[in-house]
Amino acid sequence: MTLSNKIRIDIISDVVCPWCIIGYKRLEHAMKELGVEDKFELVWNPFELNPTMSLDGEDAVSYLAHKYTMSVEQVKSTQATITKNGAELGFTFNYYDGMKTVNTRNAHILLDVAKEFGKQTELKMRLFSAHFTEKKDISNRHTLGELVQSIGLDKDLFLAKLDDESARMKVQEAEEYWHKQNISAVPTMIFNNELIMNGAYPIETYQKVLTELLEKRLKKSYM
Asked: What GO MF annotations does this protein's record show (predicted)?
């Protein structure tokens, strides 16, 4: 399939959302097991779980406990479950004392630019790993520049976009669009602009969805 003939999957997510990387990894496993990675086009769309978060960030456990009305013990239990799920998919969650929940607007701006270079998924994975595995501050410009450079992109070009008001507004407008589409939680995946799935599903569920989409596409090609 050429790029234009690939089936599009829109993924609305935030880079500090652990279930977003789990959902993606399960989707990725489903594609690999079916051998259909080349038949789908992934497009990452912005969503900020904490849009009013300060640039300094906040202690993650305290913030999440307050936001979701949970005890500290419940937050840590959830993190343990997330860590287990990640390990099963080959992704390492390194939750640690003092870990922060950070502002992700700048990360989303760079992801939008990366789409123009065909490296959006690659940058998304670096951001996930930096935040959850490598204990890095992905709201920090220097860190963002290093991540961009690590995947072969022009650090200066990308960082300049952070001061570009039009680039900032583009991300804000995209977020507003998804909110108007009643997307209120992430991850949300939209398959071929027709099937919407909220949350992280089992690999088998994604395999079924992918297979049905490909069969539907094949039937159309014979009509």
From this structure: oxidoreductase activity
